[in-house]
Each structure stands twice: as C-alpha cells, then as structure tokens.
Amino acid sequence: MTTQPTSGLPPSIRISRRDAARLDALLESPQWQHDPAADALIGELARAEVVDDAEMPADVVGMHARVECIDEHSGERHELTLVFPHEADVGAGRISVLAPVGSALLGLSVGQSIDWATPQGRTLRLRVTGVQPAA
Q: β-pairing, 77-83 with 66-71?
C-alpha cells in the first residue's frame, strides 16, 4: 500500500538538520548553480520538514542510508545507498542525491512511494521497503 496522497502531490518528506545543512552547502557550490539536477534537489529541500538529528526517525531515507525499494509496476527490487555526488558509483549501488532517483527518494519513509521517470522514459513507482540509517 502506498502512502502517496491521492491529490497528485508528492508525499511528505523529512530531512535531518545535519543533512539539510550539508545539502545546502553542496548546492551553494558554483559547480551546481543552474544545474537541472540541483534544481530538483532544491525543490525537494524546499518542501521538506527539517527535524533535529536526534528526532529523525530511523525509517526515513537520509544521506548515506542504505535503502531497499521495490518498483510497484514490475516487482523489481533495488538496494542502494544515497550519497553525495563525489561518492557516487552506480555499479556499487551508491546513488548520488543529485541523480533524479536520489533526490526523489531523499526524505521518504518506509511505505511511501514516488513516481520516477527513468532516463529510458519508463515510469517506475518506487516504494521504500527498508532503510538502514548511516552508521
């Protein structure tokens, strides 16, 4: 079951104060100014509820969290770790927060879903099934 609102709006998201500060600093870098990938992340951060680190639920996707998700259309399962751009390695399952799927998953809780268009033009409905927070 998805917790995505029926209004067509994206699901509510939460981000830790520490992650919000680190992502804001990343986005202030001249390298990411006027970049469409950065614009998508800015939009996600703008709608996020920022919570104190100590109050951040363990089942929310944050930076360096290991995420298990399933494509509700195909049943295909994915495991990835959400990382900063310089740490990304798709082959090792480390997905940049600036990749469309990375910014889409940021802040989601277990059970929440989000639609994501792949570079090949397919639409996936990814539902978060598990989160292992960063150590």
A: antiparallel
